Amino acid sequence: MSAEKMIETDLTMACQAELVADTVEEIIDILADADHGVEDLNFRLELAAREMLANALEHGCSSPEEEARVEISAHVGRVEISVKDPGDGFDWRQADMENMPVLEEKGRGLNLINQVADELEFNEDGNAITAVFT
């Protein structure tokens, strides 16, 4: 039996939409070697990470020179991805993450993240989100 490989690392991404795909790919590559044992992780992680980064760009970044911070943690049975943007945040307590909005409304990203992650956590300011996969 091989030794358990756990991951704890941070990345930064400039607030530029063209960097989202590469950043998501980098997250998946980092986790490829972890012995996390979380089933069906890549699809769920890719969808959640894309939406989290897109939300950071849309709602938290005011210029392309700013950066979003990504924290990655993988342990046996648990993977966490956190994205923190430089913005003021939002009142996540008021967000309806259970009911998908109609097509004309915003807010689909949080609903999608909530559907693919096992848990969602926000910091007090609402400018950081953590998706937990178990």
Automatic annotation (TrEMBL):
Pfam families for this protein: HATPase_c_2
Keyword Kinase listed: yes
MF terms (GO), sorted A to Z: protein serine/threonine kinase activity
Coiled-coil regions listed in the entry: none
Protein name (record): Serine/threonine-protein kinase RsbW
Keyword line: Kinase, Serine/threonine-protein kinase, Transferase
UniProt xrefs under PANTHER family: ANTI-SIGMA-F FACTOR RSBW, ANTI-SIGMA-F FACTOR RSBW-RELATED
Listed InterPro entries: Anti-sigma-factor_SerPK, HATPase_C_sf, HATPase_dom
Higher taxonomy: Bacteria, Bacillati, Bacillota, Clostridia, Halanaerobiales
Every Histidine kinase/HSP90-like ATPase domain range: 36-132
CDD domains for this protein: HATPase_RsbW-like
